[in-house]
Amino acid sequence: MPKDMLTLPTGELVKYRLSDRNGIWFVRFKDACGRYVRATAGCTNKTDAYGEAAKVILKSWCPSSTRAAPWTDVEKELAATWTGRPRTLGDYFTIIRNLRAVIETHGPHDVTQEQAHRFARLYATVGYRKGLRSDARERPRSPNTVEGCIRKLSCLWQVHLRQLGYVTVNPWANVARPKKPKKTIRIPSDESFAKFSEWLAKRYPGWELIRLFVSVKAIAVCRTFDVCSLPATALDARACTITIPAHLDKTHRERVVPIPADVAKSLDRLKGTTYLWERYTQDARRWRPGTKNRTTFDPKTWYKAVNAIFAEWSKLYPDHAVRPHDLRRRGITLTTMAAGGNVDVAANAIGIDPQTARRYYVDAKRAFDGDELLKKMADVLRI
Questions:
Q1: What is the torsional sign of CA 200, 201, 206, 210?
Q2: Which of 70, 164, 261, 345 is the most exposed, having the fewest neighbouring CB atoms within 10 Å of its CB?
Q3: 342 burial type by CB count under 10 A (0-12 exposed, 13-18 middle, 19+ buried)
Q4: What average pLDDT does this structure show over 276-299?
Q5: Residue 347: which of 221, 228, 247 has the closest Cα?
Q6: Are 169 and 61 in contact (CB under 8 A)?
Q7: What is the CATH topology of the domain spanning 190-368?
Q8: Three-state secondary-structure class, residue 205
Q9: Which residues sit opposite 129 in a β-bridge?
Q10: In 3D, which of 93, 94, 153, 155 has the Cα closest to residue 128?
């Protein structure tokens, strides 16, 4: 049975279906949060049911009241009620600034469907300048940047601003997003990782903390900032495990990662009182004297230092470039190989969505070794 369509005042289209249940007409549709709803139209006549169904859908999608508030108040309440990862909140604040820089808006309540389409069009075509100098070169935004911004704006409206009562509809739901070019996933070779480890030992002889961090990140297969933010209590030196708290993990679930005994022993000796990597505030004076020394530890500072060290290596040896996130790709790919090429098993062990692993992390050429498979099948396939 084909679905009927209802156009909302915002321009969004809602599919719905009428069905007869013992002489009474019911309407079935998806609400603004994507959940299926089945409600009675309260009619015995199908013609009347169309009008009543429209009222039911409009009531669900467009409640009568919203909270009109300036962006400053919205950001304060978002920060006060936030329970997710700190970096995600920071991303939301960034896209709000981007939105306000492109279109005039005083708060989420005045962003219409037309303005959403206009922002997407301008954001994709108007370049940006990296830096404050007036003669700085204007750079175009990539499809990945535009797609990511619109996706985050849609999530901000759909989930967070709706829950806080600032909006009732999502004007970004039907905004076209640019297609991101497909990118072949390739991780650096084992030789590149080995050369980087050798260089790290020579570049910072005696600095145990940075080598421990690289080892833990490689073993835990986590995002860099998540590892930087680990509390001291995450380490269980006796059990030789590190516990990734749910609030630090993007999948919002706790993970317990086994680590070698020697790594656990060294971490227990060097760990701070609050954060696992707190010792960096002392070590920075000796090993990174050119940086701004701080008396208190901040995971963001440690995160920037780690990225700067990897960037230094990659600039010196571009043929063997290694980024911190490559360690995560390497871990997921090697775990997939150990699981016999089963991405679902590997993803469940690491704590990542299997589709995300396939799309962004698994080096298919290395994990599945298609060339070797075709060699084995050559005699079988020929006729």
A1: positive
A2: 261
A3: middle
A4: 87
A5: 221
A6: yes
A7: hpI Integrase; Chain A (1.10.443)
A8: coil
A9: 138
A10: 94
Report the pLDDT value the prediction gives residue 168, as an integer from 0 to 100. 81
Could you state, in order of their start, the residue ranges of all structural domains in the chain?
Answer: 4-61, 71-163, 190-368
Take residue 317 and report the two structure tokens written for it. Answer: 């040896």
Tokens of 138: 């204007």
pLDDT tens-digit readout, 59-113: 777 654 567 789 999 999 999 999 887 888 999 999 999 999 999 888 898 888 8
Q: Which two tokens stand for residue 59?
A: 């009531």
Q: Rounded to whole angstroms, how far apart are CA atoms 159 and 17?
A: 25
Instruction: Give the neighbor-by-neighbor strand order of the sheet with 255-258.
Output: 235-236, 241-244, 255-258
Strands 138-139 and 128-129: antiparallel
DSSP one-letter string for 266-286: HHHHH--SSBTTTTHHHHHHH
Which residue type is seen at 54? A
Question: What class, spelled out in words, does domain 71-163 have in CATH?
Answer: mainly alpha
Q: Is the pTM of this model over 0.70?
A: no
d(CA 324, CA 307): 7
List the single range of 37-41, 316-320, 361-365 with lowest mean pLDDT.
Answer: 361-365
Please write the tens of the pLDDT for every residue from 235-278.
999 999 999 998 888 777 888 999 999 999 999 999 999 999 99
Query: Is 71-163's fold the same as 190-368's?
Result: no
